[in-house]
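Narrative of activities, Objective 1.

The group set out to show that a structural description can be obtained from nothing but a protein's sequence at a throughput compatible with the screening campaign. Below is one input-output pair from the validation batch, recorded exactly as produced.
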Amino acid sequence: MSHTRTRRSVGQPSREPFFWARLYGSRLSWPVTLLVLRTPLSANAVSVISIAVGAAGGACFVASSPGWNIAAVALILLSWILDCVDGEVARVRGTASLDGEFIDASRHQIVPPAIFAGLALGAHVRHPDLLWVLALGFSSAVLSTRFVGGMIDQLVLVGVRRGLAAGTKLGPGPAEMSAPKGRCRVVGFARLFTPLFVDFNILHVLIAVVIADTAGVRAGRWTPLDILHIAYGAAFPIAKLGSMAVAWRRGVSGRVREVLRKQEDAPAKRGTPTK
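Output recorded for this entry:
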C-alpha cells in the first residue's frame, strides 16, 4: 500500500484546481495508470492511443444515431483520461521527454477539431440541404485548434514588446497611461463563453446534450446536437475574438507593468546585503 501511495505521489505531484479535472485526473486516471504500469506500453504510446481514441470519438458523431453518439462521448471521455495517464506513467517511470511533450500537445491539435468536424458532418447527414450548417461546423473545427491559440499568444508578445518599448522611452508612468482604458464589450461577452471551450467542459456539455438527444428531445427539426453545433459555431468566433482582445489588453497593460516593476526592483534586490 505504501509503495502504491509513493508512486501515486510521484505520478500526481500536484492537486488539480478544478473539480472535474480532479475527478478525471486523480480518481479515474490512476487505476488506468496502474494497469498501464504492468504492461510494456510507454507514456508516448498512451499519448498516441489517446489521440486515436479521441479522433474516433469525433468520427462516431457522423453516424448520427443515439447509439453512436453515446459511443462518441464514451470514447472522448476515455481519451481525456488517457491524456492524464500518459503524464502519470512518464513521471512514475522517469521517462518524461520533449518528444512526449510534443506528442501530448498534438492531441490538443487533433482531438477538439475532430470532435467539431464530426458534429458538423453529423449535422450535415441530418440536414443535407443546409450547407451553412456544415460550414459553421468546420469553422468551429479550425478555431478550436491550438494554432489559433498560438496567434493569441503572439498578440500577448507583441503587446508586451510595444509596451516595454514605450516604457523604455517614456518611463513607467506614460507606459501605464497608454494602456487601454474602459471596458471592452467584446471582452466581457467573450468571457461568458470562454469556460465552455475548456476540454473537460466541452465533454460535459456533450454528455448533457447526448442524454437529451437519446431521450428524444427535439426543437422542431433540430436535435440537441444540432443546437449545440450551431451554438458553438456562433460562439467560437466571438470567444476567440474576445480572447485576442484580452491578450492584447493584458499584453499592453498588466504584463508590461509587471515586467517594468521587476526591472525596477531588481537593482534594489542586488544591492541588498545578505546575512
